[in-house]
Structures are given as C-alpha cells and as structure tokens.
Amino acid sequence: RSVLVVTIFVIAGMIVLSELGVNIGPLLAGAGVVGLAVGFGAQTLIRDIFSGAFFLIDDAFRKGEYVELDNIRGTVERISMR
Q1: Any domain includes 43
Q2: Of 1 and 21, more confident
Q3: Helix (H) / strand (E) containing 37
Q4: pTM for the complete prediction?
Q5: Nearest to residue 77, comparing CAs of 60, 59, 61, 63?
Q6: 22 occurs within a structural domain
C-alpha cells in the first residue's frame, strides 16, 4: 500500500512541476537510471527469495531427511521462511 501512495505522490509532483514550467524529462531519465541501478543491485536478493519459495512449495526437503550441501552433511530439523 505504501508503494502505491509514494507512486501517486511522485506522479502528482511531476504533474505540478510540469505545470510550473519545469522540464521533467531529465528527472524521468534520472529516475530510470536509479531504477536500473536498484534492479541490478536487488537481482540476487530477488533470485534468492524466489528460490526459497520454490523450495517450500515443491517440498524439495522434508523434516528428518538426510542432506548434503557443499560438503556439509546433516538432518533437516526445521524448514521455515526465516
């Protein structure tokens, strides 16, 4: 919900600046560059979130199952989002 509110305020601000005669083209270009940088920065985070969600949905591991990951062996005790 807060993302929607911020988006509405940013659009309203751009409209007001445009009506006041301010050229908003450079502002939009700058926002695009910032969005691109944030997108590249968050790429690993988003990939990890989706991978974790698919592990939970797909039942890749079950409680009590023996697993080996990167030369670490053990038994699954708990599976959670955190």
Answers
A1: yes
A2: 21
A3: helix 25-41
A4: 0.48
A5: 63
A6: yes
